[in-house]
Design a protein that fits this description.
Elements lengths: L1 H20 L12 H59 L4 E4 L8 E4 L3 E6 L8 E7 L14 E6 L3 H13 L3 E6 L9 E9 L4 E10 L2 E7 L5 H8 L8
Antiparallel strand pairs: 1-2, 3-4, 4-5, 5-9, 6-7, 7-8, 8-9
Amino acid sequence: MNKYLRTRLNSFTISNMTRMSFRMNDKGEMNILLLPLIFAAVFFVVTAGFGLWAYQSREDYRTNANQKIAAAVKVAKLDEGIAKDKQHAEDDKQPLKTYIGPEQFGSIHVSYPKTWSGYVSTQGNSNTPLDAYYQPGVVPGVQDTGSTYALRVQVINQSYSSVVSRMNQAVTTKQVTAAAFAFPKVPNVVGIRYDGTIQQNLKITGSMIIVPIRDKTLQIWTESPVYADDFNKFVLPNITFSP
């Protein structure tokens, strides 16, 4: 319909303007009354063309706008669903579970999300009298050297100074960064927090806290940046022990 209208307008304008251009009076002069008609015809063609263009532009905008609105609504709903899933996952972590270690190892209280499981050994190794593993869902086999864990807790039979000395090499080679650290609930015991490749032999990246506990050393760490938020938000603020 639009193409047909344009064709008819062009045909009418060209043919009529041609005839009017060469219509002379008896003296061989052009009739000046034809000029307004010519201008009117040109104005009509331009106006009609502009109207047609405006109509097509409006229809194109309306179609594209509807598509864009539909796409934006789809993205918004998807984002809303993702946000709700994340919030639901966060809500499922509460209330926290708490493990309380033996008194001879400082009665350590470790709190962690209730969606995690734990495995704790207090008799398996004299060099590590307390060795705990925590992971969302099910704890992988602790003998599997390829596994990484959301949370590890150890009390080791080594002096704090010897453990710090061992970690100094990683600090020197810039594999980890080190900063003084104290648990919020045990502020009088100051240790060190390490971030980076905390276990060079296994290429494990995470965060580790080392503090003295009596004649031993307490080590608490996460073995993946994936669990860094939970480590910082739930675990570290709730650690308590008897120095």
